[in-house]
Amino acid sequence: MSLAGQTKNPPNVILILADDMGLGKTLQMLTFIQQQKNENKNYTNLVVVPTTLIFNWQAEAAKFTPDLKLYVHRGMTRRRDIAFFEEYDIILTTYGTMRSDVELFKVFNFHYIILDEAQAIKNPDSLTSKASRLLTATNRLTMTGTPVENNTFDLYAQFEFLNPGMLGHADFFRTEYATPIDKYQDKEKSEELRRLVYPFMLKRTKEEVATDLPDKTETILFCEMGKKQRKVYDTFREKYRLEIAEKLAAEGLNKSSFLILEALLKLRQICDSPAILSGDEDYGNESAKLEEITREIEENASNHKILIFSQFLGMLDLIRKHLDKMNIPYEYLDGQTSDRAGRVNRFQNDQTCRVFLMSLKAGGVGLNLTEADYVYLIDPWWNPAVERQAIDRTHRIGQTRKVFAYKMICKDTIEEKIILLQQRKQDLAEDLVGGESGFIKKLSQEDIMGLFS
Fold first, then answer.
1. Does 297 lie in the same domain as 389?
2. Beta bridge mates, 258
3. What distance separates the 2 farthest-apart alpha carbons in the chain?
4. Which has the closest alpha carbon to 352: 316, 305, 320?
C-alpha cells in the first residue's frame, strides 16, 4: 500500500466543526447529512470515527435521522467489493479500517468525508493521516472539540486533509508558525495563523449556544499522603531526581526524555497507590486517594450519579473492590469493553446504578452521560484538553443539574507541581482556536528538575 500521494482535486467545501464538547456535534452533522439527502438522494458520505464512537453514531442516527441509510464497514467479515456503498447515505468506519482499506476507499467518490475526533490525524506523517489524504470526496469536514490538543501541528495536519497545501509545506509551517508559537509564544504569529484558519472553522462555546446549561464547578480535592505512602514516594522521587540530573548533564534534554517520562509515570502511580506499581516488590497499599474517593462515594452516591476517571486500570480495580465491599452498584468501561452501549444505557437508565468507573482513554470522548452530576479525575493529566473532554461527558446539552468536577491531587507531590506548571505555561492555542495544548515539550531543564525537587 502506498500512502505517498495527495488529493488531486481540491474539495469544494472544507470546514472544521470545533464546537465545545457537549454541544451535539454528532447530531449537527447527522442533520446536515439529512438535509443533503433531501436535496439529492444519490449522495453517499463517509464518516470515519474512533472505534469507541461507532455505537454512538449508530444510536444517534437511529434516534434522530432514521431515514438515513447507514452501513457500518468494519470487522473481519466486512465486504471487499464496495460498489454497494451507493445504496447508503452514510458509510461509517473506523480510523483503523480506513487505513487498512484505503486502496478500496480511494476509488469511491464520496460526497462528504467527515472525520470525527479528528485529532486522530494530528501527526501528518502517520499512516492514518496519509491514508485520509488519499480518499476522494467533493467536500471534506472534520469534527473535534480540541483542534489543538498537543501543539500547533495538530491544526496543520487537519488542514492537510481538508485542503492540502493551504498552510504550505510542513517545513515551512514549522519554521513560520509552529516553532514561533509553540516554543516562543509569539503572539503576532499566533494571530496571523488564526486569521488564516478562522474562515474555515466553526467554533462555538457553551456560553454562546447552551445558555440554559447549568453551571460547572471545578475544584481541586487535595489528599494528604500517610507516612508509608509518603516514604515510598520520596524514595522514588529522590532516586529519579539524581538519575535525571546526571542524564541531563551528560546527554541533554532530548536524550533524557524517556527517563523523565518513566519517572513521571511512576510518581503519578504512587500518588494513586503504591499497590499499582509494576514488579514483584511489595510497596504496601496505603492510598490517600482511595480513602478519599471511597468517602466521597459513600457520601454522595445516594443522591447523585458519579463518574470516576483514571488513566491506570490498577487504580480502577482498587476502587471496584471497595464498591463491591460497600454493595454499591456500578458500571465499568475500559479499552477492552465491548458492550459500551449497554454499559452506558444501564448507567443512564437504571437508578440503582450510581457509579461509572472508566479509563480516561476509553471513556474520555464520545459518551453522553448526562445522568451524572459528580465527576472525579483520580489522576489528572497535564493536558487540560483531555481533562475537559472527560468532564464534558456529563456537562453537555441534556444536563439539568449543576455539575461538580473534582481533580484529586496529592499535596507536595509532582501532581501539585504539574497543576502549577499548567497555570504558568499556558500556550497560545487559546488564541488560535479556543483550545489548550500540552506543555511538556516546552519545559526547560530547570522546569524538569523543579518537578522532582
1. yes
2. none
3. 69
4. 305
pTM of the model: 0.62
Residue 383 domain-assigned (yes or no): yes
User: Which pLDDT does position 382 carry in this prediction?
Assistant: 66
Do residues 371 and 401 touch, judged by C-beta distance below 8 A? no
- Asked if residues 362 and 52 have their Cβ atoms less than 8 Å apart, the reply is yes
Q: Strands, E, within 195-239: which ranges?
A: 201-202, 216-223
Torsion of CA 390, 391, 397, 399, to 10 degrees: 130
Predicted pLDDT of residue 2: 39
Q: What would the pLDDT profile of 132-168 be if each residue is shown by its tens digit?
A: 999 999 999 999 877 776 778 888 989 999 999 999 9
Q: Are residues 220 and 332 in the same domain?
A: yes
Q: Do 229 and 364 fall into the same domain? A: yes
For 120, counting Cβ atoms within 10 Å of its Cβ (0-12 exposed, 13-18 middle, 19+ buried), the class is buried
321-377, pLDDT tens digit by residue? 999 998 999 999 998 888 888 999 999 999 999 999 999 888 766 678 888 889 999
Q: For residue 291, what is the domain's CATH number? A: 3.40.50.300
Residue 62 CB neighbours (<10 A): 11
Is the domain of 411 the same as that of 341? yes
Residues 200 and 221 occupy one common structural domain: no
CATH number at residue 155: 3.40.50.10810
Q: Are strands 109-116 and 330-333 parallel, antiparallel or unpaired?
A: unpaired
Q: Give residue for cell 443512564.
A: 348
Domains of the chain: total: 2
Is pLDDT above 60 for 184? yes
For 415-427, the pLDDT digits (tens) are 988 877 666 544 4
Enclosing domain of residue 50: 13-209
User: Hey, what's the cell of 74?
Assistant: 468494519
- Scan for cell 527517563, then name that residue: 259
221/408 Cα distance (integer angstroms): 5
